[in-house]
Every structure is written in structure tokens, then in C-alpha cells.
Amino acid sequence: MEHSGTELRDRFGRRISYLRISVTDRCDFRCVYCMAEKMRFIPRKELLSLEELHTIAAAFISLGVRKLRLTGGEPLIRRGVLGLVHQLGQLPGLGELTLTTNGSHLEKYATELHAAGVRRINISLDSLREERFRELTRHGDLQTVLRGVDAAQAVGFERIKLNCVILRERNDDEVLALVAFARDRGLDISFIEAMPLGTIIEHDRNRSFCSSAELRSRIEPRYPLISSTESSGGPARYYRMADSKIRIGFISPHSENFCASCNRVRLLPNGRLLLCLGHEHSVDLRAVVRRHPADPERLREAICAAMALKPERHEFRLDEAPQLLRFMNASGG
Ligand code: SAM
Ligand code: SF4
After folding, report:
1. How far apart are CA 290 and CA 119, in angstroms?
2. Which helix H or strand E contains 18, and what residues bound it?
3. How far is it, in rounded angstroms, from Cα 267 to Cα 254?
4. Separation of 333 CA from ligand 1 center, angstroms?
5. Which is the closest atom of ligand 2 to the Cα of 72?
6. CB neighbours of 59 closer than 8 A, spacing ≥ 6?
7. Count of structural domains, the chain
8. Which of 21, 124, 149, 164 to mutate to test the pocket of ligand 1 (most atoms within 8 A of CB)?
């Protein structure tokens, strides 16, 4: 709404300082909670080009956004993405460039990502058992992802965080094993409550739901947790353990609503700027960059005007059919 030149604010006074960019909705995995087996992806001709992605990211930085996260789909399967990462890493005013990946291409790209200025990455890992990992991701190979984790550790990212989605009767018996793995490796770990985005038929989202409180109560007896006020600029609430340097985060869109401190918006692969993961309010930035390719001010105006559409909070309900038919792979979490 406001356009002071250096800062974006919505009508609830929240400062928007974080842009998540979904560079593709395609993925080499089909995680059961994220996608259907057969997906219709955005036609390629509707995707933003890498140049357009860069132009839009630069406009956000000029409006005071400090943190960019590349996500997807799987960001590392977008052709030319490393060139984009290099270019984004050089944007003056950028505070932090991060990436969320399923790890399948990390062994190959970890060194280049680090060289391009990425200092922190999130790697999704929901199981340490090979067969189950394949079931949950439908196509994923655990060993490939673990080699990706090794490569990321060898390169020396400042912070690597594992992201885990826990589903009852699918992988809820691995909570402690995942924490133990993170402790052994010296990696941070976050547990994300599953969100009802898109219709899935394989499991009942309501029955499979595990709250953060439940996960904490399972972790506590083995690894006592100490609540921490730390923040990484995202929605996770962190805990520490007395005998380890890692942090355990809980991202709890259902049970511990964090909308009041929301600082982020999302750019979808087709140029739609999504103001909230839980609503469809959006603005078509692709139309603006294509109509006015040489006029960044028009883009800035459109971004500032979009802030007025940011809803106060999401309304995720597990006991109803999903209100949002968009799957998570479009928006990238
Ligand atoms: N492909 C990359 C990956 O898996 O890390 C990046 C995109 S993925 C959509 C980003 C994160 O969202 C992953 O950690 C994934 O586990 C999580 N995710 C996907 N669908 C979700 C859902 N319905 N609810 C909660 N988290 C979800
Ligand atoms: Fe792909 Fe990530 Fe979705 Fe899994 S969670 S299907 S890896 S986009």
C-alpha cells in the first residue's frame, strides 16, 4: 500500500521484507502431501523468463525487501537457474539469498550455489528409510539426497536446515531418528505442519495431521527442549537442546498462527504475486513487466498497490475439503 521508496507495508502495518520466488512448479519428486501423482503444470510459455524473474526481484529489493528464497517445485531443475542465482547474489541491497531444495541435484550444484552467494539452504527430508522415502516422494532416492546433504556440508554453507513434514502412520515413528540425524550432522531441523493445499486422495489430511505440540511432546522426553526467541526471518519457532548446537524449529500454520508477524509474499512461476499462501489474492506482475519492459517504476507501483490486497491471516481448515485447489508446488511453501 505505502510506497516510501524503501519500504513495503501492508494495510495491517506489517513490513514486507521477504520474497519467495517459485522458479518452476515442476519437480522430479511427487511428495504425497504436496502433489498428485499426475499433475498439470503451468505451460512453459506462461512462465516468467529468467530475465523477468531477475527484473521483478530487483524491483522488490529496491522497495526494501532484504531476503530472497528460491523455491518451487524443485528450483534446481529449472534450466539456467544457477545463472539467475549468480545475478541475484549481486543485487545491491540484498541481505540474504537462500534456497529450498529436495536435495536431488545438490551433489552437483552445491559448490556453484555457494560460489554464487547462497549462504543458507533448506533441504527437505521426511524419512531416513529408503523404501519409505521413495513412497513419500514417489520418485525420490534417499541416497542421492543424502549425498546432496554431504556435498552441502562439505562446501560449508553457514546454515543448512532440514525440513520435515510428519504424517501420522506414514513417518511419525521417525521423529526422533530425524532429530538424532540432525544432531549427529550438526544441522538445524524444522518440522512443518502439513497444509491442505490441493486435493490428494492417498491419505486423509485430517487423520494424518500431526501438530507441532504433539511432535514436541514426543521429542521432549529424549531431548529436553529449551524455548528460544531466535528467528530466521521466517515463521519457525525455535528450540535448543542443552547438549547440542543445533536448533529445532516448528512451523505451525494450524496450531500456532503466525500471521500477525508475516513479512513475506510469493512470486509464482507465471508471474502472479501471491499475497498469502492461504488465499488467492494476487496480482499479475508478468503483465506489468511485459507491457512496460523498460520502466521499473511501473513494476514498483504495481508491487506497492498489491500490498493492499494482503489478507490479515490464512484460514486453513483440516476438517473441510481443501478450499485451495492450488498445490504447494506452485507457490513453494
Ligand atoms: N522442492 C523443494 C523442496 O521440497 O524442498 C522446494 C519446494 S517445496 C513445496 C517446499 C517445502 O514445502 C518442502 O519442505 C515441503 O516439504 C513443504 N511442503 C510441500 N507441500 C506441503 C504441504 N501441503 N504442507 C506443508 N508443507 C508442504
Ligand atoms: Fe517436489 Fe518439493 Fe513438492 Fe516434494 S515437496 S513434490 S520435492 S516441490
Report:
1. 32
2. strand 18-22
3. 23
4. 6
5. 8
6. 296, 299, 300, 303
7. 1
8. 124
59 in Cβ contact with 5 (< 8 Å): no
Pocket of ligand 2 (CB under 6 A): 27, 29-31, 34-35, 72-74, 102, 124, 137, 328-329
Nearest to 148 by CA among 127, 122, 179, 175: 122
One-letter identity of residue 313: R
CA nearest 94: which of 71, 132, 55, 67?
67
On whether the CB atoms of residues 213 and 234 are closer than 8 A, the answer is no
User: Global pTM?
Assistant: 0.93
Show pLDDT as tens, one digit a residue, over the chain (333 residues): 444 457 899 999 999 999 999 999 999 999 999 998 889 999 999 999 999 999 999 999 999 999 999 999 999 999 999 999 999 999 999 999 999 999 999 999 999 999 999 999 999 999 999 999 999 999 999 999 999 999 999 999 999 999 999 999 999 999 999 999 999 999 999 999 998 776 666 667 778 899 999 999 999 999 999 999 988 777 889 999 999 999 999 998 877 777 888 999 999 999 999 999 888 889 999 999 999 998 999 999 999 999 999 988 876 565 555 555 566 766 666
Distances (CA, A) of 270 to 33, 38, 109, 233, 308: 23, 20, 25, 26, 21
Show the domain range for 217: 2-330
CATH of the domain at 289: 3.20.20.70
